Amino acid sequence: MKIFRLVAPCHFGLEAVLKREIVDLGYEIDQTEDGRVSFTADAEGIVRANLCLRSAERVLLEAGRFHAETFEELFEGTKAIPWEELLPRDGKVWVKKAGSVKSKLFSPADIQRIVKKAIVERMKTGYHTDLVPETGASYPLRVTIRKDEVVIGMDTTGDSLHKRGYRLNEVQAPISETLASALIDLTPWQADRTLIDPFCGSGTILIEAARKAAGIAPGLHRHFLSETWENLIPREEWKAVREELREQILIPKASEVDLRGYDIDQYAVEAAMENAKRAGVASLIRFERRAVKDLRDPKSYGFIVTNPPYGERLEDRKAIVPIYKDFGRRLAELSTWSAYVITSAEDVETMMGRKADKNRKIYNGMIKTYLYTFQGPKPPKGFRQ
Fold first, then answer.
1. How far apart are CA 97 and CA 116, in angstroms?
2. Considering the entire predicted model, what is its pTM?
3. Which of 124, 328, 365, 369 sits at 20 to 30 Å (Cα–Cα) from 12?
């Protein structure tokens, strides 16, 4: 059984969430860096990671790592990797993305060109041929150089893991599925507790919560690039794991969960409903057109997880102030509830009229955001909604 070193990138600030997911799958963490977690696994692990990880952006198979300060060292280091053990004779390989941070080599185009050239030379030697046809399966690579340390990863995923396949209808500035799922994991919410998103947009946060409650693996209904890598992963592995994950699905009764999404935009509400239907959890979520100023609920000890408008532009900034003020007033009335608010808007605590119990820095793409936690009291022992 061959063991690989896998690298799973994630949003900056969510490394702890991803580590917990990987450990729960039964794999050993090898290293944690900013925005990525490395772990060891076999071929089945590549399959499970792609199908099951909710907060990772993709899964890379680390082909090799080495130190390089010159293009000659980059060439020789790449050529020293036993590519004939990782790629079939006719494998189509190219460097899809190259990035450099605080390193002497910084030109992405030159890095891509030299790495590709070195791989071709190694393949010729390894397969004792003068021609590398590249007519077979695709093996795109991602090269990262940090402080002159080169890491070459084979992209096992293809389209990013946030593309679950259910979100066809989007609204302005939607939150990604991976980030939405991670937000849920950063709270103590459980499926037997009420969860409301008063700025639900396309419904992603609630859909991810519902799919988690139903035990639906995030990647179950999509395909992955490495499904064609039969030299490394037998097709039977994909089939067996998918069948196992399907057997684990248990859609709860609508009466057993309380997930609700509100938005002032009727188009957003309709889009969220369609997305939930495609995600297989329409029966578990109630969407409704409602302004945040009308947020009220008779239940106690519920949760709010939401992604309100950011107000990136000056004119938008003026518009969001009353929205956050209304939100703060409504939250004050929900005195036993806990709220988790991710936003890049400034002076959130001032606008909401309440100091957060804590906040966590998370990068949503290139936007620096903060997850503000407004903690409610713990429910009494034996509490049930």
1. 12
2. 0.95
3. 328
Cα–Cα separations (whole angstroms), residue 333 to 92, 127, 129, 242, 384: 60, 71, 74, 45, 21
Amino acid (1-letter code) at residue 192: D
For residues 189 and 294, give the distance between their C-alpha atoms in angstroms, rounded to a whole number. 23
> Beta strand 149-155 with 60-67: parallel, antiparallel or unpaired?
antiparallel
Q: How far apart are CA 122 and CA 82, in angstroms?
A: 8
Domains (range + CATH), the chain: 4-155 (3.30.2130.30), 177-218+250-374 (3.40.50.150)
Is pLDDT above 60 for 8?
yes
CB 358 within 8 A of CB 350: no
Residues in the chain, how many? 385
pLDDT band at 173 (very low <50, low <70, confident <90, very high): low
Residue 207 tokens read as: 């859909």
222 vs 161: CA distance, rounded Å: 9
Instruction: Decide if 152 contacts 78 (C-beta within 8 A).
Output: yes
Distance CA(184)–CA(172), nearest Å, equals: 21
Whether 215 contacts 239, CB under 8 Å: no
Name the band, by pLDDT with cuts 50, 70 and 90, for residue 313: low
